[in-house]
Amino acid sequence: MNRRKFLQTSGLSLGAWPLASLLPAGARAQPLQSAAQPSSFPKGFLWGSATASYQVEGAAHQSGRGPSVWDTFSHTPGKTFNGDTGDVADDFYHLFPNDIKLMKGLGLTTCRFSVAWTRIFPGGVGQPNQQGIDFYSRLVDALLAAGIQPYCTLYHWDLPQALQDRGGWENRDTAKAFAEYAGFTAGALSDRVKHFMTMNEIRSFVELGYEQGIHAPGLRLDSQRVAQLNHYAVLAHGMSVQAIRAHGKPGTKVGIADNVQGTVPVVEVPKHIEAARRAMREQNASFLTVIEEGRYTDLYLKRLGANAPKFTAEEMQVIASPMDFVGLNIYQPTYIRADDSETGYAVIDPPSSFPHMYSPWLYVGPEVLYWAPKLVADIWKVKELYITENGASAADAIAPDGEVYDSDRVMYLRNYLTQLHRAIAEGVPVRGYFLWSLLDNFEWADGYSKRFGIVYVDFATQKRTPKLSATFYKKVIRDNLVK
Ligand code: PNW
């Protein structure tokens, strides 16, 4: 965009541009780095929060909801911290009108939520449950009435238990069932919801749920079975993209919420940048790479050898069904250095002194919020990106004066958002940011012991107390600027 065009679209007069003429020509072409607006985000940038059905809703047995693998898993002794379950969680099912007021008060312009498959199809397939549809319909209406754009995830790990009983993601029929549910739900909501994400973090439920056994359904399968069910999961994504297009109203946009492994060049010099670029494709070979490219990388297939998944050419085409946008869930960085190996790169394991947040895996590396969207946009020519999750756990406590001073989360958010701004200023097409999360909630195997909210929840009383980070985020949104 030339300078004149920017001035017209931004509404800035030449008088408000005193330093522009002093800047070198290259810098003048980058309006976001101007002196007038040192670090503002683009006009209309969406600021939101993200949640997932099982982590917040509660009302586990209400209005015809069927059991999911997470009900079974959390009720199995020894599987979650303290035996915690999502039976009640934040009781968002009943309290959402109040929580939407909180969102509005903070100035949020968007909200990412997920639909519980078993509220719509209690047994995974069969007859839809009208009460389940009605709940999400009311939720969407309330968001829109508050001026908040709904972004809907169709699968955030709560697989119907009835389908797990038939093999879960190891059974190819589950992909078909998912596409039917996704198409049906998009058909019911797309008169008001314009953006759907098929799945949340395929890597997480495949690896944590079916390989390491620390998430539902708690299995430890060998690598051949894991690779095959991973294939059915990405196939389910592709089939559901097509189903959403077939059943959604015109203008419905489809994407994914992917926890791409965010590769970061350990030092920003050409050889490590090139290594991070290669690593982005290889480290995500059976997730975003296959979805974007329609083929597994040679190195992925070579590494698995006889354990590689069986697939057909037709399946590969379905997996790569074009999306309208890509959502990235970004937390910890993966630092990459160049080396002489076959891959051309090596992953640097975090030294024991590497700083992390309250979750031991959540290493703090703000540059990942620059590099992940930048590399994804560069490699796969993605035109519309969202950060569908970013946030941090902290050991929050209510201070004697009743406040929660989560200065660590504020530090984290400030640094990550500054790096996101850097990417946007360079033209990376990130359109919105969803903070994980508005409320403290059921953090899977960690139960209620790890808080990610910018609003503190007393789980005994359901009282909400906005933390210092909520004040910080409110100011970021109000000013459209990070300081
Ligand atoms: C994401 N890891 O999960 C999920 O989408 C959310 O449901 C979750 O609450 C949030 O991040 C915070 O954990 C992750 O071990 C779970 O690297 C585990 C990891 C990453 C993301």
Task: Give the key terms.
483 residues; alpha/beta; TIM Barrel; 8-stranded parallel barrel; 3-stranded mixed beta sheet; 18 helices; 40% helix; disordered N terminus; binds 4-nitrophenyl beta-D-glucopyranoside
What would you note in describing this structure?
The chain is an alpha/beta fold and 483 residues long. The protein has one domain (41-482): Glycosidases (TIM Barrel), CATH 3.20.20.80. The chain contains 18 helices and 13 strands. The strands form three sheets. It has an eight-stranded parallel barrel with strand order 1-2-3-4-5-7-10-11, surrounded by six helices. A three-stranded mixed beta sheet has the order 6-8-9. A hairpin with a 4-residue loop joins strand 12 and strand 13. The longest helix is centred in the middle third of the chain and has 25 residues, at 223-247. The radius of gyration is 22 Å and the shape is globular. It starts with a helix and ends with a helix. Residues 1-37 have low confidence and may be disordered. Bound molecules: 4-nitrophenyl beta-D-glucopyranoside. 4-nitrophenyl beta-D-glucopyranoside binds at residues 52, 55, 200-201, 204, 259, 329, 331, 361, 389, 436, 443, 452.
How are the strands of the biggest sheet laid out side by side? 1-2-3-4-5-7-10-11
CATH topology: TIM Barrel
Overall pLDDT level: 94
CATH class: Alpha Beta
- What are the low-pLDDT stretches, counting only 5+ consecutive residues below 50? 1-37
Largest sheet: 8 strands, parallel, barrel
SS strand fraction: 5-15%
The span between the termini is 26 Å
Total strand segments: 13
Structural class: alpha/beta
Number of helices: 18
Indicate the CATH architecture: Alpha-Beta Barrel
